[in-house]
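TEACHING EXERCISE
Course module: macromolecular assemblies
Task: Read the component lines below, then compare them to the predicted structure of the full complex.
Student: A.B.
Group: 4
Components provided:
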Amino acid sequence: MQSSIRGFGWIEMGGLHAYLPARLARSGIALTGMYILMFWGVVALFAPLIAPWDPHEIDFAAMGDRGFSANHLLGTDATGRDMLSRIIWGARTTFVVVPLAIGSAFILGGVAGLAAGWYGGWIDILVSRVGDVMLSFPALILYIILITSFGPSLTNIVIAVTLAYAPGVARLMRGQVLAVKERDFVSAARAGGESGPYIMFVEILPNVGGPLIVDLCLRAGYTVILIGTLGFLGLGLPPPTPDWGGMVVEGVNFLSIYPHMALLPAAAVTSVVIACNLLADGLRERAK
Amino acid sequence: MNRHPYLMPLKKDHDAGKVTRREFLRTATLLGVSSATAYGMIGLVDPVSAADHMPKGGTLRVETTVYDIKSPATATTTADPMIFAQVVEHLTQTGTDNITRPHLLESWEPSADLKTWVLRVRQGVKWHDGRQFTADDVIWNLKRLLSDETGSSVLGLMKPYLLKEVDTGEKDDNGNAVIRHELWAENAIEKTDEMTVTLNLAEPQLAVPEHLYHYPAVMMDPEGGGIFDVDTVGTGAFRLTEMEVGRRAVIEAVDDYWGEGPYLDRVEFIDVGGNAQAIMNALLSGQVDGSFTVQPEFAAPLDARENLQRYEVVTADTAITRMNLNHKPFDDARVRKAFRLALDAPRAAEAAFGPFASPAEHHHVSPVHPEYAELPPMARDVEAAKALLAEAGYPDGVEVELTIQQNPPHHLRSATVMQEMWKDAGITCNINVVPNGQYWDVWTTAPLGTTVWAHRPLGVINLSLAYRSGASWNESAYANETFDELLTKAESFPDPRERSKVMADIQALLQEDGPIIQTYWRKLVTYYDKRVMGFAMHPTSQVFFNKMAIQSA
Amino acid sequence: MVRKILSRLAQYGFTLLAASFLLFTLTEFSPGTVASKILGPYALENQVALLNAQLGLDEPLLHRYVDWLQTLVGLSPNLLPEAAPGLGLSDPRGDKYFGNFGYSLMMKEPVLDVLADRIGHTAWLSAWALGLTIPISLLLGTLAGMHAGSSVDRVISTVTVTLTSLPEFVVAVGLLLIFVASLGWLPGTSSLQPGDQWSTGAQLVLPVTVLLIASGAYLTRIVRASVAETMQADYVRTARLKGLSPRRVIWAHVLRNAMIAPITVILLQVNWILTGVVVVEAIFAYPGLGSLMLRAALFGDIFTVQALTMLALSVALITQFLGDVAYAILDPRIRVD
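Instructor-supplied answer key:
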């Protein structure tokens, strides 16, 4: 009985199901972004099979010429490791770190925002005030402080991204919840005697997904930039993890002799960020 | 003048071709012969006395990191004296030819047993306020540098022959006895007359003049209390007129310098944030006329510039990956040797530096050192390394963390190469890159870390600083009586060939038992504008701005 | 209204206080102790322990936070000069004054003086970046938004989406390669040293351009979206149907309404530039607060980090407050509450 009501709700509200994949299919821009991400996703997933070299292996024979060759299609890096293989494995790093960081930020921020919007009262005040405090820190400064204090590691980068993003997500979620809280399908569920958490997660969450997914895409793109920037500032992932941002940093020093060392990973970073932005744009356009 | 008894045999050896010209000059000057005389003894002209006509005036702009240098006595990098040593000077000076000459001293004279050193203060040297530089100034400075309170690395350097340890009877918070240092004898540093100081050593030491050029050992005005700042009174060719840490420093010529020059009116030290890329960019754009050092990877674009001249020097500058014996598994000599055996040093050197380094042999004595002994190559042997690890109780290998500094970036390249090679021997190494400043918080305590060691003219100096039991720069907590004895013995031989026989034992001991892994020696490279005259690359990057000039554009 | 503004201000004050506590706690974890950084790597252990005690560093966290706060607002003196007399630390303002962040461990000078030397440089850089970003983005964004779907829009949108996807350090490196290493038209560093043969203007071009590209592309997109949306609004359609000239429609209706969203974004850009300058200043060796922040954090100069962060927090909160006020003025439907 109730499920059919909910079903109408999704379509009517432009909720989660309406965005993906129906909305996607109708937006060329979003599709382009999706294809780029899928390409890198496949590369990341099958990295061990695709990569011609071990990403850590140093080819001492290639020391003389780091440029493109039959052995190393995209040349080698400053330490003599295969660029192509490192870019392939770098995709895997990106596709692990970014979803992990974004995922935890959205879980933490999402739950806090849901609770704040749904329950109101002191929970709302607490979430909003803590969020205000966190958001008042310029993000990069917060990262620099966190990472110089606790050291650069995958865990700390994920924690830093979570702390920086969760308040924004919570704020967005809270607004969305307030907007749908008084809708019929929510009232119906409430009248039906459903528990608070049930209504929050089963009734409300699917119906507020749209703007959150756009936000997620934008934040994912920014996280890719951020990890690169942290690497550039010397606060990135610990070596020898093949990480695109770190590869740009190492390669920058050789820019005038072997531009491929910095430009190829820079292009990889940029393509993922563009894909995220296109996806977000496409979804937003379609949502109107 | 009393000639050291070893001098004539040395000349004979030189004439017979048993000692190279370089070794002759170095050893003869160490024995108290002026460098002009030493060059003259073998029919050459001292390049230092052959000064050209230099253009006068002008401002030179040099890139360097402008650190806080309020306390030169505790200076820790060779970039610090680039500024302060232009104002406050050393008693001696090791030139770009790796030969040490008297500077604020007029001469020195060791006894035949190398245990008594007479230091004659140069006549006519004045502090900037007009006061005469005398033996009292020398004594005040030496005693200050050797006191615990000052915290200078000179203490560790001279401790074996000038100091003794005294147990105060107190305990610190951790229950360890509080040890203090005192001069080993009342007359260890003795004022002979107004212009003469005599050092009476506890044991023979050859490298006293070299030690006096250790970069923190500058002569400060006793009235200034040892603090270095704008307008500090010194004896140098320049005085400091501006100081902004992390940004810039300016020195300006004084009117009546006692020595050569200065030809320049002023030198501006420009800090571009220590970013290697920014250093290159500043040179490319002509925003600086020269740089402290340039990383080798930037050589190609800079070589392509018409107006820039490349200077380089082969040095004993290196990075030592030291194992701290207070941490497992490095307390076991077999493990330490296994870490060395698992590496292919020549390949590692090439991978990290290309043509800008030469391979090292894990014993911190360089082929450019006069006492270097050639040992059979320590070839890579992964199986032997595995066997040693198993013998030491690690049949499944070990996992360690290597702490390295963020800059310059070749540390990471070098560490990555070692990490890969170690993998084959069952050694799992995680690399922990820390900002340069933070590295100095852990450099004496981290289990495994890579520390930069500057060039020093004699092999024994580094060994004494870093591996003698209890030395203040002993970052590996290495304590080996045999090593200490051999080193003390080596330090008593003026003849580089005699010394090198003991060095062979020391080097072999370090390869077998020592706390270090060392794969390369660096070349130091820098660039100056072609208008700049009188520059030569010094193996410790020291610059004598009083001898430099700039042609107007 | 006044009461609401005051209560908003009080709320921001509370946020600042809570943020300062968080900041103080985080910097506590900076590796190495204050004493070891002051005394240098060759200090004896007993010297470090003594200094720690003199500075009150062995007290509990909350106690130290209150001490720090009291020193900051000028109620109690900074203990450092007395505890470490060998460093010759002195502060012309005395030891008790508002804004006493102590001494920079890296520079051995009062933190306020260190900041004062650099704040003007960053303000100058930001002013140029914002001064160019705002008009250019408004122009391009309005142009694209008014002709949504046209070829002009497509070009502007494609370029801006690409540019916002480029990390600043990639843009900076690319510009360096072209204009410094290859063409030699511009200086490679912007350290604003007196006597540099490159003019200050030439030194500012590259840093400003990087900030402009990163910030301008983003702002253009926001303006475009907002204008495009407003163009679709009923009252604009009505106005156009009534036969008003397109120019009148744009000035009278579209821009005013379309600017509500971008105005907050512009204010956020002020905030963003404060952090964007960290990367740009580091690359171009620009002597501002951003490069200082990075250097101080890497050195573990926690007093400088604290001061810079408090400054950034204040700017962030002030811009937020201005955003609230601007919102209220531009859109009468929203009240400050």
